[in-house]
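[worker-b] picked up task from shared queue
[worker-b] task type: protein-ligand structure
[worker-b] ligand name resolved to zinc ion; SMILES cross-checked against name lookup, match
[worker-b] sequence length check passed
[worker-b] input payload:
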Amino acid sequence: MPKPLKQKKQKKSEKAEKENKASLQSPKGMRDILPIEQPLWEKVKKASQDTANFYNFSKIDTPILEKAEVFERGIGVSTDIVEKEMFVLKTKGGDRLVLRPENTAGIVRAYFENGMSHMPQPTKLYYFGPFFRHEQPQAGRYRQFHQYGFEILGGEDDPVYDAQIILAGIRSLEELKIKNLSLQINSVGCRNCRQVYRRKIQEYYRRFSAKICKDCKRRASVNPLRLLDCKNEKCQPIKEDAPATINYLCAPCRSHFREVLEYLDGLNLPYSLNNFLVRGLDYYNRTVFEIFSESYPGALGGGGRYDYLAELLGVKKSELPAVGVSFGVERIVELMKIMDISGLPKPKAKAFLIQIGKPAKKKAFLLIEEFHKAGIKVIESLGRESLRAQLKVADKEEVEMALILGQREVFEESIIIRDMKNGVQETVPLSKVVDEVRKRL
Ligand SMILES: [Zn+2]
Ligand SMILES: [Zn+2]
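[worker-b] inference finished, payload out:
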């Protein structure tokens, strides 16, 4: 019975094909940014770059891989990022490297390694690039994601820098015409006042130790500030009445925070105080904040002051005043789609080059280079043969002129310039076509 055998074989190869396809998909939580989405990305890049230029932030690119210690020491071993979310790899030489989960620690590393601390302070840096966290993918959250950010390092711990970081962040979103922005802000104090607060919140949570979630039980002893980060349903009512950091600030922290708010008031920048905002990383002190849009669930970005990070990394014996902000580009792009904000338009071509027949195609191929040299964008459809098919593309691209090179024109060393609006045609010598097109622009 040869027939069923054949069918079975076919099924087997179909299955293999399916498996093959599955193994050739992008890794979980990582995706392709397709050409259709790129104009939105270009617009975000431009808005962040323009904002950086205006407020005098200089661009920095740090490696995508950093030594694991950079994050273990900087972000803190008891944080979700370091505990569960880092992509760690061991090199053949035995180094433990990490695909960067964020950029602040890497930037502080680069700041000292490249002697930026010896230059006039503060140093203002801007970045845009990919980051990696091994977490459960969900809407707006990917394992490879992109952020841009602004950092001010060195100098004084002047509250004006906190305000400027917040301002630059908000301006970059406004540049994109993102509306209904809101700012939530809090102060988590310094080492001195945080000790007092730690005790207070531990005392408070001790009363509810039977009711809180497993994570919070652990947080209460390891990293009590992070109790306020808990999203677990059953911890919410307890969290609501928890002591607020802001009520336990020492005098210098209180006046620092007041000054930040005064700068924001001066700008007429509305904000709301959020007692639960702590941003769970070890390196934050004093000001922490997050920026939202009414039209998007979840923060578009956030940041804060991180005066202790250099010390935590072991690159400096004392504090390095620093403050920064970062934004999730995927979220911003998603929001632009929701708000119907268009991307950066592609530079328009002025002319469309049409060729009919093989000798014309050869000439056209070379002629494009003449236009390239002259800096005039000309597009073509070299794969198409018929005049009609090519004119159709030219129409769709909304070019002003079509340049038509047929057999006769090749023979006569000429070319037809056709005005796409009124259909008027003119034949000019091929050697003059670049100048003739330029005249018509
Ligand atoms: Zn303090
Ligand atoms: Zn909890």
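[worker-b] attaching auto-annotations
[worker-b] The pocket of zinc ion (ligand 1) is lined by residues 189-190, 192-193, 249-250, 252-253 (CB under 6 Å).
[worker-b] releasing lock
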